[in-house]
């Protein structure tokens, strides 16, 4: 799928290792390692299982949201609603997925006594979350059929999701279902669960998207839709599948976040929209052309989380911290641009 | 049960402190401020007060360090990460102005489990292991209506300016206002807009709703940071300025002073002094010191009335908010009141 020139056999090993293509795929991992080493230098205490757990914990939901964003990027679209959608999932998770319809704060005091099981079953939460994924698939269909700009559609949807989230959970509260909490507080020997989870996410999505036939078709739909359509694939179906996958991973992100915070807040993930785009781009994905990297996306998400911690450990003045976060992003992306330029020159 | 564990933890802490020295000593303790937002004058003043008071405390050797950290954006997830980083840094206490009362509970619990004292203030957290230096925001909203009821026994129509939607402070103040209105039936809220605690947003929101409102609005109930914007919106619409409750911001107080001098305009202004961060600091220091501190404490309001307007305005920095800093004795007093 890549348009990068393949290295000639005549090239030396050094030239091959420093080819833009290799550099670009190494850059995300390289930035992660640099920031991690800097953190270890500043705060040696971070170099322990507990320390790593605390450092990487919150990158799990961000990584899942980044994967969701990546699926949308993959078909040349952009999802500006993912943050609000994750917030919606958190709101539903903290209420209906825990105590059924009866757990909705809006219904407090209106319930019959005793409460029938149909109102307390978490199945209602499962249905609502499944409907959320369904809505994502329909969005994909809408964007394809009406040929609408995804930015406009998803920007509109972000208000819908945010509104629904506030309706479900008007004030922060609720509680994470026990199984969600149990998964996110799993303790694994030696390597913290957060890192295990990140690796699993990266590997599963990598194999699904980069190593299966249909994964190649999805990426192809982003790279060259016309030829994919000529080969007999339904572009409508491809769009729907990739948006549904985005909805699915967005849902996982919401549940993972809920498991970490233990309680819900409709506004909890507003920042995820930008983080997921930044994470995906940091990880080597492109806005167009179906050029994405699941492993890179996970690494990008982790890098963003670590950059945050790094600045805390640096004890920067709060006023500068805000700017410094942006500066780290710009530096890494500038390196990307340099590598791309080098590629274009060849 | 949770209270019992708290007491046990406290006892254990007391024991360990007592073992360290004859009288509890906090000079080697490190306290961190975790702040979720620095984008308005109130928060800026809060950070300055913290710097001033804790800087002195560190210089005096009361504590070893008192560092302030602010997240780039007002986001729960970012602040949770910040708290986790503070655990790693090995702080003994975290003073916390939380982005969400519930969303940080996971991170706060992790801090408590690591043996760290967590004192939340202003934006408090519900996790039982943390202390809460809470503002009775609901009472603040209710006080506004009570003031109006006293001032205007005949009542009338009110416009409500709310804060940022979905933030619990907004819900609390608003529910206090509505409770006050319910108890004083001569008042009626005819319109409600979100001013996001910012003058420009409030001005736009009020300007937008004004044409649909009746002419005889007697007062505007606010949440602070929005009074000046509301006044500008009324002026721009060419309508008489009703009584607008202020929120201790310098621009609001200055406008009030101008109106007072020009036409005897009367109102009141109420908010929480940003220096409450220093109160929370001393509370944390007291807990580290081994003092018996109840988990729930209440912050006094800073109220400005017609007669002490000039004095407060003189003490308020341009672009700032009326402020007062708290001392160790103030903290002890608040603790003693909570015990009663």
Automatic annotation (TrEMBL), chain A:
Cellular localization per UniProt: Cell membrane
UniProt feature coiled coil, ranges: none
Record-level Gene Ontology MF annotations: transmembrane transporter activity
CDD domains tied to this protein: TM_PBP1_transp_AraH_like
Transmembrane regions listed in the UniProt entry: 22-42, 54-75, 82-103, 123-144, 151-170, 190-209, 240-263, 269-288, 295-314, 320-339
Role played: Part of the ABC transporter complex LsrABCD involved in autoinducer 2 (AI-2) import. Probably responsible for the translocation of the substrate across the membrane.
UniProt protein name: Autoinducer 2 import system permease protein LsrD
Organism listed in the record: Bauldia litoralis
Lineage: Bacteria, Pseudomonadati, Pseudomonadota, Alphaproteobacteria, Hyphomicrobiales
Automatic annotation (TrEMBL), chain B:
CDD domains: PBP1_ABC_sugar_binding-like
The Periplasmic binding protein domain, residue ranges: 31-291
Entry GO MF terms: carbohydrate binding
This protein's record includes keyword Signal: yes
Keyword DNA-binding assigned: no
Subcellular location: Cell envelope
Source organism, top-level taxon: Bacteria
Signal peptide stretch: 1-24
UniProt cross-references to InterPro entries, sorted A to Z: Peripla_BP_I, SBP_2_dom
Recorded coiled-coil stretches: none
GO cellular component, as recorded: cell envelope
Keywords from the UniProt entry: Signal
Assigned protein family: Belongs to the bacterial solute-binding protein 2 family.
PANTHER family documented for this protein: D-ALLOSE-BINDING PERIPLASMIC PROTEIN-RELATED
Protein name as annotated: Ribose transport system substrate-binding protein
